[in-house]
Specification:
The chain is built from six helices and no strands. The protein is mainly alpha-helical. Helix 1 packs parallel to helix 6 and helix 3 packs across helix 4.
Length: 176
């Protein structure tokens, strides 16, 4: 990947990140104000811990949808030679992104429970690695979902994952 992205690719990176950012913000708000508390049940406590809940899956499946709609609206404002999102079914893509987001977080949680790391914490050993993986796992899952719908070049997938991971980290620090 070159050090400076072409402007169209940079716009694509931003637009592909919008649904994930919107979904993440809606999920954080849902947790903070405790909506859908009936679904605040662990998927599997021993495997994934207390924080991976059915509510998280439900909220993320639905919360990325408005982000896809917003990204599609923003995409029409740019004069792009190759629009990526406008021709996609916003609901289906939103559900796929939410599912990719949630499923990609499970292996990390599973591994942390096996290592005895408590929910919401990182290991003191290799802390930098766990912080990166904690932020990047969901971005990776979403990139797989995107790849199923949109023929993206590898550079756009990598750049979107890096950008989205950095934004996720900043939002988590700001909203926590």
């Amino acid at each position: 990947m070159s050090s400076s992205l072409p402007s169209q690719e940079a716009i694509h990176v931003f637009l592909l990140s919008v649904p994930l950012i919107v979904g993440g913000i809606i999920h954080m708000i849902a947790v903070k104000i405790d909506i859908l508390s009936y679904f605040k049940k662990p998927i599997h406590h021993r495997w994934f811990g207390q924080n991976k809940t059915w509510r998280g899956f439900l909220v993320m499946l639905l919360a990325t949808w408005p982000g896809v709609i917003l990204a599609q609206k923003l995409e029409t404002l740019f004069d792009l030679n190759t629009p990526l999102l406008t021709n996609q079914n916003s609901f289906v893509l939103g559900i796929a992104l939410g599912l990719g987001y949630c499923l990609a977080e499970l292996p990390n949680s599973f591994m942390k429970r096996r290592l005895g790391i408590k929910e919401g914490l990182t290991s003191d050993k290799y802390k930098w690695l766990f912080v990166i993986v904690d932020q990047a796992d969901s971005a990776f899952g979403c990139m797989i979902a995107y790849r199923l719908f949109i023929p993206l070049p590898l550079s756009a997938l990598v750049a979107t994952s890096v950008f989205r991971t950095a934004i996720h980290r900043l939002l988590k620090m700001f909203l926590s």
